[in-house]
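Retro notes
What went well: the complex prediction finally ran end to end.
Inputs used:
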Amino acid sequence: MRDLLIRGADLVGRGRSDLLIRNGHFLDPADVDGDVNELDAHGLVALPGLVDLHAHLREPGREDAETVESGTLAAARGGYTAVLAMANTTPVTDTAEAAAHVAALGVRDGHAQVVPIGAVSKGLDGVELAELGLMARAGVRLFSDDGHCVSDARLMRRALEYVRAFDGAIAQHAQDPQLAGAGACCHEGEISGKLGLPGWPSAAEASIVARDVQIAELTRSRLHVCHVSCAETVDIIRWAKQRGINVTAEVAPHHLMLTTNEVLGYDPTFKVNPPLRPTEHVEAVREALADGTIDAVATDHAPHARHDKEHAFADAAFGMLGLETALAVVLETMINSDLLTWAEVAKRMSIIPAHIARLTDQGRPLAPGEPANLVLLDPDARVVVDRNESASLARNNPWHGRELPDPVVATIWAGRVTYQKESRVVS
Amino acid sequence: MRHLLSAADLDQPQITEILDLAEEMSLVQGRAVKKLPALRGRTVVNLFFEDSTRTRSSFEIAGKWLSADVINISAKGSSVSKGESLRDTVLTVAAMGVDALVIRHHASGAPWQASRWIDAHVLNAGDGTHEHPTQALLDAFTIRRHFRHFVPDLSSFEGKTVAIVGDITHSRVARSNVLLLNTLGAEVILVAPPTLLPAGIDSWPVLVCTDFDQVLPHADIVMMLRVQRERMSGGYFPTPREYTIGYGLTRPRLELMKPGAAICHPGPMNRGLEISADAADAANSLILDQVAAGVSVRMSVLYELLGGAE
């Protein structure tokens, strides 16, 4: 394969430079040798390839909703070069064999690196620990029962303690099932009361996080909080970090922009867990992402077959698409409002997520010798999102019909162009 | 009127028109031959995802007395458990060529969703814990008749106080009544233990009180809500006995009622729990009038939706 010379990109917002890629790695651009393919990137910003800590790729089990291939194609279109695949597939990723299977699907079909997340408990039932150590030997470092909360405090304690042996972390879906049961589907407040939808109070999230940071302190273990959705949780995480507790947190793009008002029309596209919250919470999570209390943006990409979303609101599946639009939403809510710089976006969408997941080849500097994972983006391009243009097999796209930035111009994973909006590479 | 989804869809003149027409329709009830030709050739489907003998029968009789072809479809247990989506069920029924779909669903918002998928008129016959607009209309009809004993041509409820007592959180009857009574100018007081008051109630156009005895002497209408069985085991209140003592319309409480005040209940009643037999059968109980009004009001609404020029 010919070397690829990327000309004129603004590297992480720090100034223009050329990038030379050979055999999956960056080289000193001065080392150009013979014929190269060129990509003109003047006017574009280059970031390290994005890393998603939280995606549901649905394979194995629900290949009608998404596959590793379609999900990672969506990832590549969103600027991602690595995706952590959640464990709630069928079968559940709760054994080393199941984890190896997901990783193998990634190697075979992936348009990005696919890294399995292991279940905390067998079958996600919240009762007995899954084979965390054996999964760790198969390369798993993040464990989560996402979709379900590890609500049993003793199990959570044991899981946190146990994964310390191999530098693992527990990614908690914080939802007290007594305060927000399986039917809870709307932020508890004025709108849930008006619409007659079962309430999902922010206290159900914050109280679990308050408990878990205490357990993390007790066990000196690494806790990661999934999809922080409310102001109360932000306060607790801020407090825990000040105290030196080893906790990290992510926020989903939809919680950075969409509010409970979206639910007023009972459109199940906007049914997500945790639910969309009122404006004051949206502002709190933006602020927390800006000041680093929330470490990372993670998509919680949750594709569903159409028929699983075309039920009554209370009966429809939870979740919305996110991989293709995450960077657009961060650009709109954080860059365009001067809450984050490009260097900080690189941290929150690539460098820190890679570190949390212990991925050594991702989130690296755009520098000679490093793996060639990057995304090139045009900060000014905009588009009206059309769900039918998606690479995902699913159509539960909450951004459909909305004008958003359309930044991703090209994505390169391990030196390979996995996506380009229009052909820009010339020989 | 295209659909009737919420009591908030109606302004005061529309409500008055529906209630006035219902008065005319009620004359049919007294005739030997209970039939009007108004909706001949129109098809009304009662699509019930949740059992409700009372509401379904009421809609069925209303449609039949207006000469519509009325078909009942029980879709209970359909949808999720059988693997068919709500959209498929609704589209399937609509594809048969119906003019109006009367929908009762266990989930809030289902009639809203249906109204976006099909061309037929959609009538909300009760959705989850959200709304039940025809119940609110028949309550208004009954209440208006009661008030007209004293002021014959009364149409606004200005200056009147209606207390709605019981499980407000899970009550679609309460939500629709609050909206409709507010439009008609009544003052609404909601009475319940704090566990049965919904989130965000501070923004509702009502007064809220947790002490029934404090409210009772001021109410012109006392509307008791049914306590669902599942709430009794849900920890919303300690025991049925405590509920009755705090929030039941017991015999001693009848003494506290304002002279001329009346009692309503949407049924079915739990006699001895939220309402005593003495209250249910009292001279000032409007409970059976409500049932009779159900047919007249639903005739009126069906006529409003289907009777005019398309």
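What we learned: The mean pLDDT of chain B is 94.
What to try next: split runs per interface for comparison.
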